[in-house]
Specification:
about 170 residues; mainly alpha; 7 helices
Length: about 170
Amino acid sequence: MSVADRVNQFDVWLLDRVFQPMVDRLPERPSGFDIGLSMQLGAVVLSAASIVALIATGVIGVLNGFSNVLIWLFGVAFYIGNSRMRPLVRPGHANPLRLMLQGMRPLSIPFLGYSIWIMVSAPPELEIAFRFNALADLLYVIGLYVISCQPKPPAYRRTVVDWTPRQARS
């Protein structure tokens, strides 16, 4: 078995054994997809806070700040693209994002580890900015896995009212 097969096997295990049961336990509203999108929006906001904190402390210059803003804009574009996929994710149907994000999910985990390592090894004056960045990456990974889960089928609702009296049913 190749390394790519093992990575895909781990991704499927993480999706099916960790995140899918978590999404199945969520209430019907808001849906797991909506919660995952909210997490990704939070990741975009925290990433912006991290960039602002780095620029405000004067750690990064104009060119590094510009490249960080461009990377942030790619994150915003990814969030907008995922939110436009909302009509495709329907209860009772296969989630197309499960396959579409198959390469993105396992790739995001090492970046999360890297941002945590940077946060731990950061000097004290930069710690808050890198905490924002690590938290943004954590929310991004969790949101990515949550939006890739199968939506719960709608709850069974009784549509016909039983009009027979209780004494007659017994």
